[in-house]
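Exercise: predict the fold of this chain.
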Amino acid sequence: MKRAHVVISGMVQGVGFRSFVKKHAEDFGLKGFVRNLHGGNIELVIEGYDPQINSFFQALRKGPRGAQVEDIDIEWEEPTNEFKRFEIEQ
């Protein structure tokens, strides 16, 4: 089990990116959350296993139609197993 704290920058707000992230996280069986940050970035925390996390990151690099991902900053952390599902936070 791994945990990643991720900040995605670029044209990622106002294009359905959080819903895109939630759908793919659920498809890959990941748990955590995604939310908008002030300044136009998106933050997410995910927990899951290597193969699913790697596939999830491949999907994030593309993003939904209308998005332009400039950078994905990933910090690996110790998993806490605190999440029951994947949610969009306001």
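Check your answer against the key: The mean pLDDT is 96.
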